[in-house]
Amino acid sequence: MEKFTTLKGLVAPLDRANVDTDLIIPKQFLKSIFKSGYGPNLFDELRYLDEGQPGMDNSKRPLNKDFVLNQPRYQGAQVLLARRNFGCGSSREHAPWALMDQGFRALIAPSYADIFFNNSFKNGLLPIILSEEQVEQLFRETQATEGYQLAIDLEKQTVTTPSGQSFAFEIDAFRKHCLLNGLDDIGLTLQDADAIRAYEAKRAAEAPWVFNAIAKRT
Amino acid sequence: MAGKTLYDKLWDAHLVKQRDDGSALIYIDRHIIHEVTSPQAFEGLRLAGRQPWRLDTNVATIDHNVPTTPFRSAAEIEDETSRIQVQTLEENTKAFGILEFGIGDVRQGIVHVMAPEQGAVLPGMTVVCGDSHTSTNGALACLAHGIGTSEVEHVLATQCLVAKKMKNMLVRVEGTLGAGVTAKDVVLHIIGVIGTAGGTGYAMEFGGSAIRSLSMEGRMSICNMSIEAGARAGMVAVDDKTIEYVKGRPFAPTGANWDKAVTWWKTLHSDADAKFDTVVEIRAEDIKPQVSWGTSPEMVLPVDAVLPDPQAESDDVKRNGMLRAYEYMGLKPGMKITDIKVDRVFIGSCTNSRIEDLRAAAAVAKGKKVAGSVKQAMVVPGSGLVKKQAEAEGLDAIFKAAGFEWREPGCSMCLAMNPDKLLPGEHCASTSNRNFEGRQGNGGRTHLCSPAMAAAAAIAGHFVDVREGI
Ligand code: SF4
Fold first, then answer.
1. How far apart are CA A131 and CA A113, in angstroms?
2. Which of B65, B85, B172, B228 sits in a 20 to 30 Å window from A28, CA-based?
3. What is the per-residue pLDDT across A41-65, written as a single tens digit (0 to 9) for each?
4. Facing residue for A214 by CB, picked from B23, B56, B437
């Protein structure tokens, strides 16, 4: 997993609530068996005028000029500013993969759907929660100023505006630790292999029906 | 000390290790696998040179990508990427030794229909799957929820999940449900009341006399859609119906193990003095058959209602959402729900493709004809076994005589990853769970409702109040 320490990046505003994972990456693109390559289809239905299908040459498709992320001033954005309940809907991890592949490293919104929130951390994408008022202020400033950038410091847990105003955000200590160090969850868990084995032994005695019910494939 | 909630009990029984930072390692009893969210997880295992922690906790099947017209091998799947995913699962399960119900196996079906049907999921288990509707299994008093692909890999490699304890919510539905009001209407009504983020951060228990009166299938429909109410996990306490449902299933325990299991299962309910962080009270008598009109499951109304006026909404964000929904759905405020015409009808999905759902739809369709204005009405059983059972009861004949298509099991038109799709602008009465923009096909307009309401809409060509025919 990619590390996340600090980031100073261009901000793009996506002014709608309840952005669901179908909107982030439509289901026809879930058929790939790889983790990368989803960026050009991020927000596909909003971004292009035609219907997107896997395998198309996206550079030749008609762009929806009205879609905010298509505006020249937001090209290369690394921070996505969003409204409440961002990422609702399915559990597809393709949503954070697509956001990352497009170049986003951090999100700022008043709230996120649980599974999406969780998936983001596992991929080195930082979903920051700020209050409705703070998010509203950032929307106003981003829209008013071309080239608007925010500085994010994960260690200090702050988001700083160009004028120097700083907003503190909360983050779970374990997730912060993993992000800062780019740590792989599986490796960390396997350090507790003995605890897992001890649990299994105890549980197998108490609830033997849980184990060995489903045969191994032969 | 206050008593424990059902969720507290399930959590405590699976706690491997509490970490200092508030996160915990939770043991996972069952991991259900399908073709869409697993390829990258298996790939990750290979790249890291890891083996699955154990095999007898996993079971796999194909559902999202499969065509619902008969086919005999993956090679017959026309869409190349769908074919590759189906074949990749086949290869991965074979290589790692994981049981899979593949093409042509009567047990193949939608993950959340297959798992309880096989007894792969039993009361008191922790259950995960790379699909958000895993919450369905909570109907068996399981702690069941969807996970992402990184977590699929994590569970394969460690049989554990890193989790944080959620808050407890009780949704209590007391009273008697009226005739024609089903589990689907109950859950749509709940979502209408608490909103699509109402349950975020909670494990949601459904209780009360109306929930207890429901069959296991009905409880599954309700837990299925807890994710649409924002809760990753929904659950219902064990009662006699739960135990009766599990008895005799292929992977259910027998003999002394059965007795031991039942003794434990009977403790799987919230204690009388348990503390919930939030309690939502719903009166069963207030629930009418529901139809969603917009592009979020919370945009739902009783069938006898008229569409709401966005100008009356004081919250800017909500009002904008409503305006966008009206534009996308091609509907106008003030219109009656019963004036919405349907182009297609879809009866299926992990919410409503079990035998009871098909019986309810067949009861409405019996002796009637699908309206000439409806382009397609399809019934898609949730698994090969549901299909077989329905055919044994003659339900397929009823549907076919009425002009419905009778299909092979799969996710079908729930999500447009396979050939079953809506065309732009088409309105669909659908028994699935999500009415997001483009969910059932680019530009498609989904109206969520119960199987009986969907069948009635197919016959009338527009939504009708199913209670009027009773
Ligand atoms: S039926 Fe629909 S919601 Fe259920 S698992 Fe399949 S795609 Fe997901």
1. 16
2. B228
3. 999 999 999 989 888 999 999 999 9
4. B56
pLDDT of residue A218: 60
Amino acid code (one letter) for B15: L
pLDDT in tens, A108-141: 999 999 889 999 998 889 999 999 999 999 999 9
What length is written for chain A? 218
One of 1.10.1200.120, 3.30.450.40, 3.20.19.10, 3.40.50.300 is the CATH number of A6-176, namely 3.20.19.10
pLDDT in tens, B401-442: 999 999 999 999 999 888 899 999 999 999 999 999 999 999
Q: How many CB atoms lie within 10 A of CB A55?
A: 10
Is residue B124 within 8 A of residue A203, CB to CB? The reply is no
Q: Is the pLDDT of residue A217 over 90?
A: no
Nearest to B134 by CA among B233, B203, B64: B233
Instruction: Look at B22 and A5; give whichever has higher pLDDT.
Output: A5
| Residues framing ligand 1 (Cβ under 6 A) | B 63-64, 110-112, 131, 133, 349-350, 411, 414-415, 432-433
Mean pLDDT calculated for residue range B218-241: 97
Which residue in the set B37, B97, B257 is minimally distant from A209, CB to CB?
B257
Residue type, B449: C
Identify the residue among A45, A56, A67, A214 best suited for mutation to test binding to B, counting B beta carbons within 10 A and taking the highest.
A214
| Sole residue written with tokens 């729930």 | B414
Which residue has 């925010």 as its token pair?
Answer: A150
Nearest CA in chain B to A213: B251
Return the residue matching tokens 């596992």: A122
Copy the structure tokens of residue A1: 């997993």
The predicted pLDDT at position B80 comes to: 86
List the end-to-end C-alpha distance of chain B, in Å, as a whole number: 50
Tell me the shortest Cα–Cα distance from A93 to chain B, in angstroms.
Answer: 5
Q: Is pLDDT at A37 greater than 70 in this prediction?
A: yes
CA distance B216 to A121: 36
Residues of B in contact with A206 (CB under 8 A): 264
pLDDT tier for residue B317 given thresholds of 50, 70 and 90: confident
Instruction: Tell me the CA–centroid distance for residue B411 and ligand 1, in Å.
Output: 5
Put simply, the answer to whether B160 touches A111 (Cβ < 8 Å) is: no
Percentage of chain B surpassing pLDDT 70?
100
Cβ–Cβ < 8 Å for A179, A121:
yes
Beta-strand runs (E) in B259-316: 278-283, 290-292, 300-302
**B160 three-state secondary structure:** strand
What integer is the mean pLDDT of A200-205? Answer: 97
DSSP type of residue B423: P
- Average pLDDT over chain B reads 96
CB atoms within 10 A of CB A2: 10
Alpha helices in B58-208 (DSSP H): 80-96, 111-118, 149-158, 183-194
- How many Å lie between the alpha carbon of A159 and the closest alpha carbon of chain B? 23
| Among B163, B127, B142, residue whose Cα is nearest residue B17 | B163
> A28 near A54, Cβ under 8 Å?
yes
Res A121: pLDDT? 92
CB B80 within 8 A of CB B87: no
**Residues of chain B with C-beta less than 8 angstroms from the C-beta of A18:** 196-197, 296, 321
List the beta bridge partners of residue B15: B26
Q: How far off is chain A from B336, nearest CA to CA, in Å?
A: 26
Q: Which of B43, B53, B437 sits opposite A23 (nearest CB)?
A: B437
